[in-house]
From TrEMBL:
Signal peptide: 1-22
Biased composition (Low complexity): 111-128
Residue segments, region Disordered: 83-166
Species this protein is from: Streptomyces wedmorensis
Full protein name: Secreted protein
Alphabetical keyword list: Signal
Length: 310
């Protein structure tokens, strides 16, 4: 299996979400624990904002970057004589905070229970274009035996040892080239996942904060009063014995309604949010220089996407 970099902005978002227990990167070591601010009276988490938000693209900007990256990959494939059609990407669900602390919206809970995306089924994958062996080689590159170039500049001076129609195939193929043109055109670019890792670290540390742990315990006791045994406020379905097929059924709806009611009663969301904001603020202070570069590179990426998307 050949190593690959994420090829779309959506992939970056999914990977960032999976890193909720990862350590934050940085030149100055891990984020120092910060005392959480006074808990806010928060119930619905959909519109919460965070200190690191200013270093990330908006949902609309993410869609533009993703589309431009696909077109840059197609530009590369043209060099090899292939009319590559990037697969249609489903409209992303967005990078909002509605499910960051589990269910928090009472109307959604009473209507859909724990069913994902408001009860909608995720769209199926679009069929892949048949490019043939040469086209697949141009798109994905040959098996990688050594270091993968981390910038477009490095990629351009690295020989993969393979050619298609007389043209040198980039290491990682056109998919990798499209990613590097968008995220690392020059050497020394900030890791595309830097902000997501800082977010993941702040989220994980906030979950372990004593005040959050206390609020989670109170929420768990509140749930137990109604017969629901769980200590996981984010994804309690497994504890509650709810399969994916039953996530929107009557039993799930009843549990979901109680889940939200208990969060409101214990002020869990406000306590957790305040703690996470505190850790993010400390991260912004500790990584100010890198985050300034991150914002500058993001602005350049947004401009490139706008120019390529026309």
């Amino acid at each position: 299996m050949r190593p690959r970099a994420p090829h779309t902005a959506a992939a970056l978002l999914l990977l960032g979400a999976a890193l909720v227990t990862a350590c934050a990167p940085g030149e100055t070591g891990p984020v120092t624990p910060a005392a959480p601010a006074a808990p806010a009276a928060v119930t619905d988490a959909a519109r919460l904002t965070y200190p690191l938000d200013g270093y990330k693209p908006t949902d609309e900007e993410s869609r533009g970057i993703e589309r431009a990256q696909a077109l840059l990959t197609a530009d590369c494939m043209q060099r090899f004589g292939f009319a590559y059609r990037p697969p249609e990407q489903p409209r992303p669900a967005g990078t909002g905070t509605a499910s960051r602390y589990g269910l928090t919206d009472a109307p959604t809970a009473s209507r859909y229970g724990y069913a994902p995306r408001g009860g909608a089924r995720p769209p199926g994958k679009a069929p892949a274009q048949d490019l043939g062996p040469s086209g697949e080689l141009a798109l994905g590159g040959p098996p990688v035996g050594g270091r993968i170039p981390m910038s477009l500049a490095e990629s351009e001076r690295t020989d993969s040892g393979r050619r298609v129609n007389g043209v040198k195939v980039p290491v990682g193929g056109c998919g990798r080239e499209g990613f590097l043109r968008m995220y690392a055109p020059r050497e020394g670019a900030v890791d595309a996942l830097f902000v997501f890792r800082l977010e993941a670290e702040a989220f994980s540390r906030a979950r372990q904060d004593a005040r959050v742990a206390k609020a989670v315990a109170q929420w768990s006791r509140c749930m137990a009063e109604k017969g629901y045994r769980t200590d996981d406020p984010v994804s309690p379905q497994q504890d509650l014995g709810l399969s994916a097929d039953a996530a929107g059924g009557p039993r799930a709806v009843a549990a979901a309604v109680q889940d939200v009611a208990c969060k409101e009663r214990t002020r869990l969301v406000g306590v957790w949010y305040a703690a996470e904001v505190g850790f993010q603020e400390r991260a912004v202070e500790q990584h100010a220089e890198t985050l300034t570069r991150t914002r500058s590179e993001l602005d350049a990426r947004i401009r490139l996407a706008a120019a390529r998307n026309g």
